[in-house]
Amino acid sequence: MPAQGWERRWSWDPSILATLSSTPAPARSSNGVWETSASPCGSLSGGGTCQIESASSAAEACVTDQQIRELAALGVRVEGYFQSPQDTEWAVDARGKLWLTQARPITTLYPLPVNAQAPEIRPGEEPSDLRVYFCFSVAQGLYRPLTPMGLAAIRLLATSAELMRIRVTNPLAGPPAYAEAGQRIFVDATGPLHSRAGRALLPRMLDYMEARTAAIVRPMLSDPRVPMTRSSLWPFARRVLRIAGRFGVPFQVLTAVFRPSASCARIRQIGTQLRQRLAPPESASVRERLDFVERVLRTEAITLLPKTMPAAITGGGMLFIAGKLLGSTVTALTPAQPSWRIA
Length: 343
Fold this sequence. Notes:
This protein is mainly alpha-helical. The protein has 13 helices and seven strands.
């Protein structure tokens, strides 16, 4: 492509094309090829590749430490000019001067979250440009991209964060910590990493959920860019207690311990009621059915966890305690078999 058209296309700032020193730029030929008089190959008629065998030892670096620093500085300047990372091409002339010959956007970088919302800044905290995103899709073993409809449904499910007193401005966009990139689900984990409770719980959860991410998160705890700014455990405990009180978690735990059959009957009743509520009226219009689906995803689905999981967690905890007391492995069997097995 002729150099003039190339410059018009990319709107080059002349200072970017200048050498990092004060020496003038090399001459430009009529066909748009940048050349210097010291070029060992000269102008190649019709284009092509000029290969030069180096007489220096193969163990020696082809660029000096100073040239590496100049390359790094050049990369920063070009990225700042285009406001995005660039794939650059460069050359060093016979005088050892560095020249920029071409720059184009890097298209293989994974996209940053495009719909990330402004983080919540609490009193006493300083805003930070560094954000830590956790890929929830990978944690669920889902490596392929999701469909737009699937992402829309996940955003509505995530809006249930309102149950934890998290402000959600737009239910269709999800809570502030929700983000998407490459049609995959990401969670902004920066807030938990700033808190004492999050630093204690998040790595341990990831040990079971996504061990590879846990190995990355732990070094972040000592990164000065991610300081602990919330040392009190009370805000986290207060939210947990509010949820526990709202859904009667203490009562569920006591029922599971002392009346397990009643606990199972209660969960079966929840399933029966849910099936009834999930049936929209037969006369509902398309718009009414869509509103019905949005309401179910936003209010019915996630609330099943605090309504049913306490009994399951209590049962698992009782099995663990029994195993510790007996010094053996205790596993629950089906109702048709003996209630307990001791190995």
